[in-house]
Amino acid sequence: MLPVLMYHGLHGGSDAHGRYDPVYSVRPDDFARQMDWLLASGHRTTRLAGDHGATSGSDRHPGARPVVITFDDGDVSNIEVALPLLRERGMVAEFYITSDFVGQPGMLSAADVRALADAGMGIGAHGRSHRFLEDMDIDTLDAELRDSRARLSEITGRRVDSLALPGGRGGERERRAALAIGYRHLLGSVPGPNRSLQPDDWLQRLAVTRQTTLGEFAALVTWRGLRPRIARARFLALTLPKRVLGNAGYERLRARLL
């Protein structure tokens, strides 16, 4: 089993540097405790490789259980908070950057993205504009995927072959378009365990939020107990209003509720 954990920003409160989100901004102390739990329970972080399989972390610890840490969007806390905490523990992560966000207030600069790559972290694409890919016509979708990949490759000097879909929204059309461009690892957001790492196929992720307790975190990683079932049921329950309201309508409703 390969759990893939999804984070966004790490913020102590709404006044922290970066773009605070009341749902997805995890407290730095909670993140540190979660990373310590992973190490204590025999997990080792790994990166998605350019070829088959995974690299780093787990290779140095035969028999360790691999886990992938991911961050979406490109919040500045990725380098100011997450990177030091990861390096202190000898851990690695994948950072999925929305290329139009680079250099915006509260977000990573181009130099920050390069520094993450130079520190041994993975850099993947998260769209150019963060618009939902399934809402685009085919030409706009192609440009969105190509431009974000090219921009991040230019910044890092490395091939970018991993894509996390903004909002996890997309299906077979988006998969085919991404693979045709050269992406090899595609990440969605349906909660669930990955039984293996297969290039050219979906990897699903486990969202870690501000409200996730350490016990719930452990249950998600191991995919045991009630918490995983609740996460899956909640995701499935939200698919209906997304279909009825459309992505734009659903996001407006979410913003009002928050």
Provide structural commentary.
The chain has 258 residues and is α/β, with parallel strands linked by helices. The chain has a single domain (4-225), classed as Glycoside hydrolase/deacetylase (TIM Barrel), CATH 3.20.20. Helices cover 40% and strands 15% of the residues. The chain contains seven helices and eleven strands.
Q: What's the arrangement of secondary structure elements?
A:
Blueprint: E1 4-7, H1 28-40, E2 43-45, E3 47-48, E4 54-55, E5 65-73, H2 77-88, E6 94-97, H3 110-118, E7 122-125, H4 138-156, E8 162-164, H5 172-181, E9 185-187, E10 202-203, E11 206-207, H6 214-222, H7 226-257
Parallel strand pairs: 1-5, 1-11, 2-5, 5-6, 6-7, 8-9, 9-10
Antiparallel strand pairs: 3-4
Helix pairs in contact: 1-2, 4-5
Number of strands: 11
- CATH C-level label: Alpha Beta
What sequence of helices (H) and strands (E) makes up the elements? EHEEEEHEHEHEHEEEHH
Uncertain segments: 50-56, 253-258
For the largest beta-sheet, the strand count, sense and barrel status come to:
6 strands, parallel
Class inferred from helices and paired strands? alpha/beta
Coarse shape: globular
Radius of gyration: 17 Å
Average of per-residue pLDDT values: 88
How many helices in DSSP terms?
7
Please give the domain count.
1
The termini sit apart by 34 Å
CATH level-4 homologous superfamily:
Glycoside hydrolase/deacetylase
CATH fold label: TIM Barrel
Beta-strand residue percentage: 5-15%
Helix content: 40-55%
